[in-house]
Amino acid sequence: MIYNIKRDHARFRSIVKGKIKQDLKKYVTHGEMIGRKGKDLVTIPLPQIEIPHFRFGDKEQGGVGQGDGKAGDPVGAGDPQQGEGQAGNQSGNHMLEVELTLQELAEILGQQLELPKIEPRGHKTLKSKTERYTGIANQGPNSLRHFKRTFRETLRRQIASGIYNPDNPVIIPIRKDMRYRSWKTDVRHENNAVIVYMMDVSGSMGDEQKEIVRTEAFWIDTWLRSQYKGIETRYIIHDATAREVDEDTFFRTRESGGTLISSAYKLCEKIIETDYPPSDWNIYPFHFSDGDNWSGEDTRLCLDILEKNLLPVCNVFCYGQVESRYGSGQFYKDLKEHFGNEHGAVILSKIENKEGILQSIKDFLGKGK
Amino acid sequence: MSSTEYVSSDLTPELTKVRDEIRKYAEGFGLDFFEVIFEMVDHEQINSLAALGGFPVRYPHWRFGMDYDQLSKGYTWGLQKIYEMVINTNPSYAYLMKSNNLVDQKLVMAHVFGHVDFFKNNYWFSKTNRKMLDSMANHAVKIRNFMDRYGQDKVENFIDNCLAVENLIDPYLPFSLPKRREPKQSEEAEANKAVEPGRIRTQRQYMDHYINPPEFLEEQKKRLEQQARKNKKNPSEPQKDILAFMLENAPLEQWEHDVLSIVRDEAYYFAPQAQTKIMNEGWASYWHAKIMTQKALKDSEVIDFCDHHAGTMAMQPGRINPYKVGIELFRDIEERWDRGKFGKEYEECDDMVANAKWDRKLGLGRQKIFEVRRVCNDVTFIDEYLTEEFVDRFKLYTYAFNRRTNQYEIADRDFKKVKEKLLFQLTNLGQPFVYVTDGNFQNKGELLLWHKHQGLDLDVRWSRETMRALSELWKRPINVETEVDGQKKLFSYQNGEFSEKFL
Fold first, then answer.
1. pTM for the full model?
2. Is the peptide bond prior to B91 cis by the omega test (within 30 degrees of 0)?
3. Cβ pairs bridging A and B (under 8 Å)
4. Are A132 and A205 in the same domain?
5. What are the pLDDT digits (tens) for B340-352?
6. Which domain holds residue A162?
7. What CATH number is attached to the domain comprising A300?
C-alpha cells in the first residue's frame, strides 16, 4: 500500500499557513478539539478549510436530538450539528493551548524573513549525560533483575517445552530465562541561551512605544526559543536607575524621570557575571529605548561598558530605537558613530512604527548569530 | 514511499480462526456477502485510509490531508479511534486496527460482515462500481499526469471548484429509466402542423366545426408553441444532475472535462453510503450484537464487549447517533413483525393495553428486516418504520435555534414534528434542491439555476462562493433563482461581482 497522505497533509498545512493558494485562505476556519492532558483540559487547534457548497443558513436549520428535557431547555452549549470534540461543557476548567504553535510560528517567521539558523558558539556547548533504563538484557546484576520479563520467559519456555502444568503452575526460571534491565547513556548537547531585555521606561516612552517593544520582544523570544533548547529571559527597566523586574512589570511599567542608560548596562553586566558564565551560555542583550540619554558623559560610559565588558561575552548586542515624539534619537547616532555599520557584534535598528517591527527583527536576527 | 521493514498486513493465525468462525455464524444467520479481505493496519495507516475514504490510492488533494490532520490529532489525544473500515467493492476490503484486542476484533469482524451484506444486497448500492479500487487508482494516475503537465496548483484549483459542486448530482438518476427521446416528426408532418396546428382530423367535413371549434384551435396553437419553446430550451426540464449538464455543455478543456467527470464518478459512488447511513450502521450493529451475544462471545469477554458496544451506541444530547437509531429501528421492526403489530387491524386498535400486549405470534420479524435492508434507504426507512412509540421510548425531540437566548433549545417532542424534521434532514442529505433550468439565460450563455425553496433560505455567503466556483467551470455569469424571507430573488455572479435583486 502506498500512502500519499503525508504529501496531502503537508499541502494542507501550507495552505493553512497561507504559503500557497492564498485564495483558499478565506475558507479557513479555526476550530479546536478539547483534549485532556493529565488533569488539564487542553484545546487542540484544528484548522479546517471549508469547501463552499449551496447550503442552508446555519442557525435556521435546527435538527433532531435525543435525551431528557422539556421544550425550551437548551440542548447543551456549542453547536450540536458539528461533529467531533465535546462542546465546552466544562468551561470552569483552565484551558491551555497546545500543539507546538510557537515552534510553528517561529518557522513561519523564519521563512518569511529568511532568517538564517543561528550558529551557537561551538565551544560553549553544554554536554550532559543521562542514563535511562530503556532496554532489556540477558545479563546483568541481580539487583536489576526484571521480574515480569523473567517470569514471562520462563512461562514461555515451559509451555513451549510442555513442562507447564496448569494444575500445578510452578514456574522455575533457569539461567537462560533471566532478564535484566539495561540502560543507555544519552549524551545531550544543550545550547543554552539567555536573553536580557533592557527597556528605557523614562517619561518619553509612551504606551505605543512599549507596545512595539512588547511585540518585538515576543517575536525575538519565539525565534530564539526555536533555536535553543533551554532559554532564559531576564528583564531590566531603567530610567535614571535600573532594576530587574519580571516579565509582566517589564511591559507595563511606566515611570518617569531622566535616563541613564549606563545604569541598565551595568546591571546587565552584573547579571551576566553572576548567573551566566559566557563559556556555558549564548548571551543576547537587547536594549530598547527612544534614544535619549541624560548626558554625553553617560553615553561615553555606556560605550565603554559595551566595548570592554559586554561585547566580549555576548553573541551579539542589539539596540532597537523606537521612534517617539519626545526622544532625540541621539543614542543611535552615538552608537553608530562609535561602532560603525559593520561591527560584527553590535546590531542597531530603528523602529519607526508597528510596521517597522518585522524589518527590525530581520535586522537583529538576520545575521544568524 | 520506500519502507525497508516488512510489515505484514495479513491476519494472524489466531485471527484467521476467529474470522472463519464469525463468517460461519454470519452465514448461518442468512447474511449474504462478497468475499471479505481483512487487512491489519496500525493507527497511522487507518487514519490515512479513513482520510482517503477507504481507498489506499487517491488523487493528490489537500482535503485528504485535512481529514488526516483531524483524525490523527483526535487519535493522539485519545478523543477518537477508528476500529474498522470497510469499503464497498467486490471483494470487499476491511481494515482492522492492529491494536484492537481480541474481543474488539471479533465484534468488528461481525460488524464488517453486516456492512458487506448490506453493500451487496441493498438496492441503492446495486448500481455502484464494485471495482472502485481500480477506478480510484486510475483516477489518481490521470490526475497526477495532469498535474505533471499543467501544474499542481492549476489542476488542484480546478478540483477545488469541482468539489464545490460535487453535491449537485441526482442520486436517484442511476435508477431512473433512460430518457425517451421524442420521435422526430417527418418534415411533412411538421409542415402540416404549421398550417393547422392541433387540428383533429376528421373525414366528415360537416362535423369539423364541432370537433375543432376556433377556441380549441387557439388553445392548441398556444400549447404547441409553448411546447416548441420548451423544446428549444436546454435543458428541456429542470435537471438536478448539474455536473452532467456541465460536462455536456460547459466550455471545458479536455483535461478539465476529465477531472470533472472523475469528481462526478466518485460523488455517485459515495452517494448511496450517505443515503443509507442510519440503515447501514444499524444493520451492521444489529448483526454484530446478534452474532456476539448469541454465538461468538466468551464469558470472559462480556464486559469488554458491552463496554465497546455501549460506547458505539451512546447518544449525546442534541445529536442523533445513526448506530443507535438504526439498530433500534431494526429491532423494533423485527419485534413488530414477530408479533404482528402492523396492518389495518393493529393501526385501528385504540386500546393501549391491547396494543401493548398485541401478539399474533407471526414470527415474520427476521424475514421483514431482510426485506427492509434490501429495499429501503434512510428516507424510506424512517418514513415507513419510525413509530410514535419509538420516538417516545428514545426521547427524540426537535431542536431549534433561539435567537433571543442565542442557543439551541428543545423545540418539540411531537411525533409528527420529529419525523418531519428527521426526514427533512435526510432528504437530499439535508441539502438544498438546486436544479439547472437554463443554459442560455437571457440568451447570453449565462447559467440559470433554480433553488426549489422548501422553507429554508440559502446561506447567501456560501451561495456566493459556490457561484464563484461554478463560474470558473461555466466561464460565464451564474444566476440562481431563490427565495429570501419569502421574496423571490435572483442571485447573480458576474466577473467576480455578486449581486442580488428581487424578481
1. 0.67
2. yes
3. 222
4. no
5. 888 888 888 888 8
6. 127-187
7. 3.40.50.410
